[in-house]
Amino acid sequence: MAELITGLTSEAIVAARETLEVEVSAACERAGRSRAEVEVVLSAKYVAITESNALLEAGITLIGENRAQDLVARAEAFPGRFTFDFIGALQSRKVKLIVPFVRLIHSVASDSVLAQLEKHHTDNTRVLIEVNVAGEEAKAGVAPDELDSFIARCPVPVVGLMTMPPLAANAEQSRESFSALREMAHSRGLEQLSMGTTQDFDVAIEEGATIVRIGSRLLR
User: Fold this and answer.
1) I need a surface site. Which of 31, 79, 103, 211 has the fewest CB within 10 A?
2) Domain assignments of the chain as residue spans, ordered by start
3) pLDDT tens for residues 7-30?
4) Three-class DSSP category at 121
5) Cα–Cα distance between 186 and 211 in angstroms, integer?
6) Rounded distance between C-alpha atoms, residue 144 and residue 139, angstroms
7) What are 182-219's pLDDT values in tens digits?
């Protein structure tokens, strides 16, 4: 397990955010999109809870958590200060823990999770379905040809799709996966597309991402 990040300063985060903003805005311009169409979610997987004040001082309040226990701990330590998305692999037994705190769950991909959502959802629960666009055997996600039936079984509103493309040597190699996810979402009237991370967010934005999940670029 990677070591948690400590020693963050709001000044360094602000500087990194300003640099990132230039690149996000440029990608939006290349795609003929408004900058307002794209949200940047901080992937806080390795950010110690003790570093949360630095995030707040830098103006970062939209957090993506990968682990249920981290999400709950940060939410309880800083009540009402952050908006949380859950972006990691979701175990069905953790659904009830995160539901009270999340804006969106990005990674719904199993019938066991659907069963727990049926039991524990609130009126505000909204989800994105994780799609295994490339059909990788070792990767989570719903197969594209099973997507319609999976959405039909989901007991809460599905507002979009998410994917993690295959590991690639450069961002351009992920374009096909992002384009495919965009078409799947648009053909089903789904507005949210969570795709793109530090390595390939610019290509994801060019292909229609509405949410990009950025970690290390903001935490230097």
Assistant:
1) 79
2) 10-218
3) 999 999 999 999 999 999 999 999
4) coil
5) 15
6) 13
7) 999 999 999 999 999 999 999 999 999 999 999 989 98
